[in-house]
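FAQ: What does a ligand-bound record look like?

Like this one, built around iron/sulfur cluster:
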Amino acid sequence: MAESKTLNINMGPQHPSTHGVLRVELEVDGETIVRAKPIIGYLHTGIEKTMESKLYYKALPCTDRMDYLAPMSNNLGYCLAVEKLLDIDVPEKVKYARVCLAELTRIGSHLVWLGTHALDLGAMSMLLYAFRERELIIDIYEACGGQRMMTSYIRIGGLAHDLPPDFNARVQKVLKVIPQRLQEYETLLTRNQIFINRTKGVAVISAEDAINWSLSGPMLRGSGVKHDLRKANPYSGYEKFDFDIAFGTNGDAYDRYLLRLEEIRQSLRIIKQSLDGMPSGPYRAHVPGVVLPPKEDVLHKMESMIFHFKLVTEGFKAPVGSVYQAIESPKGEIGFYITGDGTPIPRRVRVRPPSFINLACLPALCEGRLLSDVVCSIGSIDIVLGEVDR
Amino acid sequence: MTEILKAFVNVIIKMPQGFGVTLKYLFRKPVTVQYPKQKIPMTPRYRGRHYLERYDDGTERCVCCGLCAAACPADAIYMEPEETANGERKAKVYEINLLRCIFCGFCEEACPEEAVFLGQDYEFSADNRNSFIWTKDQMLVKHPRKENPLKRIIRRVRRVYGVPTAK
Ligand code: SF4
Ligand code: SF4
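The answer part, i.e. the structure of the complex:
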């Protein structure tokens, strides 16, 4: 009787290092992976469909809940897409503030990635340190938008409120603290032989494969492809900022680790420039019927009151047409494809989720490798299941 | 060969430096707080559990216009109007289902009377679903109000934040 040599095992959906409810079906031959198949859908909440049943402004909180580690990036992507559809221009200050917040989000998201990835590979204290620093950034979200994760702060046509009075001081603290702490992370991990053994040469993807898998973000740049939407297709005034694209050479997990640390440094540079150059001015565009008028006017002026009532109850009608707006989120290219049909409700909202597309290359990363490398591969892709499943 | 040498250096010199970092924090003050006993104050804009404001003379601000319910992305607000003795409109029933609510703050932004606000409470738990449906009595601030400076500050700060938009 022929005996099957391989064994099928399930990793997840309740596995601590699948970062959520990802299930990976593994066929193993001893310790070697013969076949790996990510199975998704355990966190499917129908976010796209929900957005298609809501007014444009009411769909915004849904975007927070996709990539919940980078809420501001998602808000920004959606708002830019709707602004493009409506052809609205936002004040200069809004652009600067958005860039600043998006970069803070990048740091926050990379810190969580760093902590959890290191934890997966056995470095417990890294998690505690990374979360400690992320707290500074989360406090900034709270001071701005009032919520620590689901910020909904960036709105169509501007921001929800003006930047808080202590915004500058808080961000300055981040600028001061994070570089020192990065030094410590480097001491802990960069030359840690255990970490090197677990990541060097693991989860390798060549530049050509990365492009063919349509990867984006650190997954793509880790293989040496210098593609960053902030440079390639600037949005929200990124062309005014001076920064470098971080990229790796070998395309392995270790390179992506170094790359993400470098991205944090570049983000700090951008934040510094945006703080220095932050112009004063309004925090919302003046577009009656699309952007809420200020509360003072609503209380005292008839027209503002009417616009306010109409906007809140009916929303605004978007023109017929489709737009695609992609931004560089911490995980890669997050794009919003929105089709308006002349009603206040979008006909179609399609999100191009970076985690979902990056996750697709998981079999290529770990087939033929050892079982323990699966954890490292999943970790270094940096997925958020909320975004994968939507 | 150089690889092995490098690994040797890493293990002998670099890794103990890492241990040094962890050791250093053994002698630092911890950044964590002992939660139920110690609490971190929330920022003025924090979006916690709702409350309904009153005018200084005690009348309710809410006129049951329904804008908050219209703005609510989660359809968490339910209300029924009634008329007071002197012909003013006010809410007979005003309920927020805190299990549906996503604490987005859109109701607060939509309210044209500055009646509903999201407060600073974040600790609410119960063992049955019904007690998450908050009624008007539970949300209205007490009158005469126990002077709660925090709530006053929230209102003022939020108002001051709103500078006019470009004309
Ligand atoms: S709370 Fe405000 S928006 Fe809601 S019904 Fe009352 S007055 Fe209208
Ligand atoms: S906070 Fe948001 S979800 Fe909650 S009741 Fe207000 S509008 Fe609805």
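Follow-up question: can I read anything off the structure? Yes, for example: Chain A has 17 helices and eight strands.
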